[in-house]
Write a structure and sequence with these properties.
The protein is an alpha/beta fold. It has helices at 21-26, 34-48, 63-73, 87-93, 122-130, 157-160, 166-170, 185-188, 204-216, 240-243, 251-256, 269-280, 294-309, 321-342, 357-361, 369-372, 377-400, 424-429, 449-465; strands at 77-80, 101-105, 138-142, 147-151, 162-164, 181-183, 192-197, 218-219, 228-229, 232-238, 259-262, 414-418, 470-474, 477-481. The protein has two domains: 31-98 and 146-262, Rossmann fold (3-Layer(aba) Sandwich); 269-481, no CATH class. Helix 17 crosses helix 19 (449-465). The relative contact order is 0.09.
Length: 483
């Protein structure tokens, strides 16, 4: 039978768990390292066929198998990848493989969650040596508290390792005792998981301290002879461009990291869309509902793909999934605004709504100053959006034969659209267009005028992207015609 503090199938009230060391031992508790705890619980989840990392999409055949092997090997880990590749999320997700509750000595004043079988501090060792098991109190540490992370830039040695506490020296504490020390975040995560984000940005002195922890599992502060045999898992994240740059990470620290887990962007556009929809966190229903044609989602994700390919974008920085998320929210908000103003339910995003992406996208792209030359950020974004529309439209052209529509504009047809034009007006705008326009609606068959308006704009923007018609833009109004 599974020990109550390890059971995940029911909610355990910590008040029902053992309260003294004797009760704990009689209940069958045995001390184990945090790496053994993680390994055994992960192996059990693997054997049960559980979904190991809920919400992580696109890594089933690449990242997750490597991560599983690293956990079973008991390694400290480095997640190496560009921004927006779920590195932090995967680090945080490891907490679910810890026990729901962990017992520790309920001792005031100690900075550690002390293992009853292997006490770390002098005060804890004295408690275990001088008291009977009935007199030694036990408290319980919930697993969600057993994870901490730190962003490397600006982090000092005292923040994560520790420092001599001047106030304690003034109070008369001897410098030769551990009582004179103030411990940083890592020692306080004894028997837990600690993560350092953006490792290459970490001060070299702190890297040396981490090297000692990885090598000896030991904390030494300012050369004190007092040392602490820590029990923890150390995780790191880094961007390949900076991690592989000489001098950014000391070789001794690199050598002690057990496994490097390489992450990546979605390899297929549909996977990117799945991530986008799962992460957006937007209610598309409610009093002002929004319905999104699939081709608009394809264009949004293709924009991210084209940005990652673009010679104008700094590839060392990458293009985060947050780029697509911000653009998605902007597109939905623009459509919802139109729906509120014109009473359209549901509102449907259109190509003209993408004209607002500059507000959400520009801060998330870093230009390659050599590749972009004299182009501004807005010009680069416009080029990327145009290329994304062309790619998606090209796929639909092959399927639906939309190129014949371009011939209509040779007769002098001029059509004006815009993000604030009511959907019902689109029927008037295309009234002079022959029935060949009906072919455009095969893209997303619907009698809803808002859906049809979105389809019309997609076809117009697509024809412009392949240079079949011209376009002029003026304060959100877009005019398409044949020059």
């Amino acid at each position: 039978m599974t020990a109550p503090w390890r059971r995940t199938d029911i909610s355990i009230d910590p008040a029902t768990l053992p309260k003294t060391l004797r009760q704990l031992r009689e209940a069958g508790w045995k001390s184990r390292s945090v790496k053994d705890e993680l390994r055994e619980n992960f192996a059990a989840a693997l054997e049960r066929g559980e979904t190991l990392f809920p919400g992580i999409v696109g890594y089933d055949d690449t990242v997750i198998p490597e991560l599983a092997i690293a956990i079973l090997a008991g390694h400290d880990l480095l997640f190496l990848g560009e921004k927006g590749q779920a590195k932090s999320r995967m680090m945080r997700s490891l907490v679910r493989f810890l026990d729901p509750w962990l017992p520790y000595l309920d001792l005031a004043g100690t900075p550690f969650h002390e293992d009853p079988e292997r006490p770390l501090s002098r005060a804890a060792r004295e408690l275990v040596a001088t008291r009977s098991d009935d007199e030694i109190p036990i408290a319980w540490w919930p697993r969600e508290k057993r994870y901490a992370e730190r962003l490397a830039p600006g982090t000092k040695f005292a923040d994560v390792i520790g420092e001599i506490d001047p106030a304690k020296l003034v109070a008369g504490v001897s410098m030769s005792t551990e009582d004179a020390l103030h411990f940083g975040l890592i020692p306080r995560m004894h028997r837990a998981i600690f993560a350092m984000n953006e490792l290459p940005e970490l001060d070299e002195l702190v890297q040396v301290g981490l090297f000692n922890i990885l090598e000896e599992r030991d904390v030494q502060i300012r050369g004190f002879p007092i040392s602490f045999d820590l029990d923890l898992i150390v995780l790191f994240s880094a961007n390949p461009a900076t991690y592989n740059r000489s001098g950014k990470v000391i070789p001794q620290l690199k050598d002690r990291i057990g496994t490097i887990i390489r992450t990546h962007y979605p390899k297929e556009r549909d996977l990117g869309i799945e991530i986008l929809q799962a992460e957006a966190g937007i209610d598309l229903d409610g009093p002002h509902p929004v319905r999104i044609p699939y081709f608009m989602l394809e264009i949004l994700e293709q924009i991210a793909i084209e940005a990652r390919r673009s010679r104008f974008i700094d590839h060392q920085s990458g293009v985060s999934a947050r780029f697509s998320l911000a653009n998605y929210r902007t597109m939905v908000a623009s459509a919802r605004r139109r729906g509120i103003l014109h009473g359209e339910r549901p509102a449907v995003p259109r190509i003209s709504d993408l004209g607002h992406l500059a507000a959400s996208a520009l801060g998330k792209l870093e230009l390659d100053l050599m590749g972009s030359h004299q182009m501004s950020e807005s010009e680069v974004l416009d080029a990327i959006v145009a290329q994304a529309i062309a790619v998606v439209f090209g796929e639909y052209v092959q399927q639906y034969g939309l190129e014949s529509i371009a011939e209509i504009f040779a007769k002098g047809i001029r059509i004006e659209v815009g993000d604030q034009l009511p959907s019902a007006r689109y029927a008037d705008r295309i009234a002079r267009v022959p029935p060949v326009w009906e072919k455009a609606f095969e893209v997303n068959a619907s009698d809803d005028p808002a859906i049809r308006a979105s389809c019309v704009e997609f076809v117009l923007a697509g024809l412009h992207s392949i240079d079949k018609i011209s376009r002029s833009v003026d304060h959100g109004r877009i005019v398409y015609e044949r020059e």
